[in-house]
Amino acid sequence: MTRSRLLLSITVSLFLASCGDDDSNRFGNTDDLRHYRDALNPIIDHVSAIEAQVQQQAVGSSNVATAANLNAVYLEVRPQLLETLVDFDRLVPPKNLRTLHHDIRTLIILRLDAYRIVMEGFAVGDSTVYATAETQLRQANELIVEINIELCEIDVALGDLEDCRLLARQRRREFSHPV
């Protein structure tokens, strides 16, 4: 369903892009949009790289991450994600992209909060908080699909069909108690 929705969105966007003038599209002024997208791309890349690092360092081939492994990697990456949020908050989105901007910020905040919850729970040996962290990560991951659809639609509107920069999808992660 998600793939077909993405294809439909791209098709509709291509049609709409071909009907407008060169200076604007349904997202607003093309120059403003391109400037925003160019500034957003490194942030997207960094958020995705952080998640890849978490997956690589904390999640084994069984797709299960121990609290100890998660705590260690979260201690390392959480400051990086906080810096990324600061950089992101410096961006001023075009008017028609405020909802997308808010959704990306929400995704980052949900991950930061989940990381904090795991670290605090691990520090005091409270494994009951891991379910809350899992819920927040699941909510962040649910946002990724909609964010990616809109990012691709923006790229289509800009004519950047081969450079669709996406937030990486995160595999579902289960927490286990430290051994």
Question: What's the structural blueprint in terms of helices and strands?
Answer:
Elements: H1 2-19, E1 24-25, E2 28-29, H2 30-58, E3 64-66, H3 67-89, H4 98-124, H5 130-157, E4 174-176
Parallel strand pairs: 3-4
Antiparallel strand pairs: 1-2
Helix pairs in contact: 1-5, 2-3, 3-4, 4-5
Structure description:
The chain is built from five helices and four strands, in the order H-E-E-H-E-H-H-H-E. The chain is 70% helix and 6% strand. Residues 16-21 and 168-173 have low confidence and may be disordered. The chain has one domain. By secondary structure, it is mostly helical. A hairpin with a 2-residue loop joins strand 1 and strand 2. It has helices at 2-19, 30-58, 67-89, 98-124, 130-157, and strands spanning 24-25, 28-29, 64-66, 174-176. It is elongated and about 55 Å long. Strands 1-2 form a two-stranded antiparallel sheet. A two-stranded parallel sheet has the order 3-4.
Short characterization:
The protein is mainly α. The protein has helices at 2-19, 30-58, 67-89, 98-124, 130-157, and strands spanning 24-25, 28-29, 64-66, 174-176.
